[in-house]
Structures are given as structure tokens and as C-alpha cells.
Amino acid sequence: MKMRAAVLEEFGQPLAVQEVDLAAPKEGEVLVRLKACGVCHTDLYTASGADPSGYKPCVLGHEGAGIVEEIGSSVTSLAPGDHVVTLFSPECGQCIHCRSGKTNICLAIREQQGKGFLPDGSSRLSRAGEPMRHFMGTSTFAEFTVMPEIALAKVDKAAAFDKICLLACGATTGIAAALWKAEVEAGSTVAIFGAGMVGLGAAVGAKLRGAEKIIVVDPSGPRRELAKQFGATEVIPAGDDAVQAILDRTDGFGADYTFEATGRVDVMGQAVEAARMGWGLCTVLGVAGRGETLDIIPRFLITGRKVQGGSFGGAKGRTHVPQLVDMYLAGDLELDGFVSHHLSLDEVNKGFELMEAQDGIRSVIMFD
After folding, report:
1. Which end of the chain is more exposed for a tag (fewer CB within 10 A), N or C?
2. Known catalytic membership, residue 362
3. Is 58 annotated in the active site?
4. The domain containing residue 301 runs over which residues?
5. Is 63 a catalytic residue?
């Protein structure tokens, strides 16, 4: 079938919206008609050429939601008409990682997905007869996508696509990190570095867990004010004094839980240092640049602090994303305020520009 998609032709150049071909789903695969897709920093990170694992040409986009159009053979959990959220982090339920219960990082399709292919090592995308690679197993900057069944979360049809598409990456990463990865305790103190979507999501999750004090650190005044709408009880400017400011607000001990959501290694270091001596837990959510390393003073660890990462916030996509959608529909989870701009597919590059200008939180591409 023919469809329109935003193609990464050259690193550092605007995406090109053009017609490409999409083949029918094969065994274990599903054809999805996209209805909405968030423009995420990870897309920009790859488009810029900074991602060491990036490749081209490919169709970018990974924060999508849509409707199942067709299913391949052996697909049992989805049917045409189902509403789904796309998952760059699949959940097969069968691999050693899924069965362990210790991680959300599924191994079932990881190797081929990282190369830009579907599980059988081939692509459904092509242009003028030449195969094109998929992005993060999703490629949602397009009118349609073909994805593995295990990388789609079936959700309630009552939920608005432009809101739940955010649960495909950014919103879930922050919310789940507080809810299920760090398991923030009621009455605790939380410090969050970064007030973009991931950081604000962490604030939402911390509030849901009953945190007593939620401190958000960000260089942007408007972002700091916005953080108060998502659960922040205090906000402070980013900078060299941020750790001391957190210590001053926590009787000199530091926060019980810290979350880093900037991708800057210097800020990651601050998040470790700002964690409470004795039991403070730092969860790193940002993606650092190529070749960057995080330096941690051993004394911080010896005196009881712990550090962990949180890909997709530790969420198991097919298990947790439907739960988050249900929470949203019940009015327990704030998503509406995350959507700052609605764009057409032709305006995808404007979404990157708005992101770099820190204009709003998330731009969402809407499809007819």
C-alpha cells in the first residue's frame, strides 16, 4: 500500500514527508492506522546524528496510537478495530527477561529491532522498490505502520488518541519510574531534575504515590511554574547550587528519591549527590550523548545511596500502558496538560523546532 511518511534522509537535515510503500503484515504482525503521534526528543536525537546507533533512510516516530486495520497469521490478542498504543519496548511474556519478573527489557525482538528490521530480519517499508528501515520497531511518523503483536498495547476505545499516544514513551517513562521502578513511598521527599515531559511525568507519578514533598529543578522559569500544575510542591532553578538547595530543603540529608530527566551527565551526577545519605535512590531516565560517562564519587555509594536506570520507566508495555489509560479515563492521571501543540504530518519539522525552543511540553501530530 502507498502512504505518506516523514523520512530521515540525512542526519542534521529536516525530515522529508513523501510517499512510501508499506507491505502487508506477516506472521505475528499487525497493520495499524495511526491517529496521533507525539514528537519526542528521541526522534530529534536520532535525526540530529547524535545517536551512535542511528541509521538512514528510515521513517522516524515512536510515540503513536491508532486503530488495528489488519492482523497477520498467529495474532491472537488483537483484532481489527482495536485501539492500540505503540511500544518501542515490547513485552513477549516468554523470554528469560519477561519470565524473570525482574526487568521490563524484553529480549524477543531486540536484536533485529536495533538494526531497523522487524523480527524476521526484513522490512515492510520500501521506496521505489528499495527497502527502508523501521525506527525503534515503530516508525509512527506515517499514516500506517506494521508492528509485532507483542509491541502493541490494547487500550480502552474511549481514550483520546492525542493524549494516550504520549504513553508510548515520554509520559509513561516518568510516571512509571515513580510508580513501579522506584516505588516512591507515601510521605517521602522527591527531587526531580528536568521539567520536560519525562520529569513532569515523574512528578505526576510521585504525587500518585503520596510523596509529601516534590522538588523540581529546571533552568526555565515557565517550566518550573508548569511543574506546579503537575504535582511539584517546590521548584528551584537549575545550576551549580541545585544540590545545596535540595539539601537545604531536606534538613541537610537529601531527597529519599531523585529522578534525572535531562540526559546531561553533569545533572545525573547532581541527582546522585542529592539523594539521601543512607537510603536515597537515584533513578536515571535521560539518555546521554555519544561517548559520555557518568562520574560518581564512591563515598556517595558507600554511605548508602543507590543508583538505577529506568528504560521506559521500568514499565511493561502491554501490562502497564492499559492500566495508565484506565487511570486517565478515571480522572486519576493527568495527560491533557502535556499536549501543547497539534500539528499535521507536514509540520513534523516544526515539532522539532518547538521542542528546541522549549515551547510547550509535547507537540502531537494528528492524522485524518
Report:
1. C
2. yes
3. no
4. 174-311
5. yes
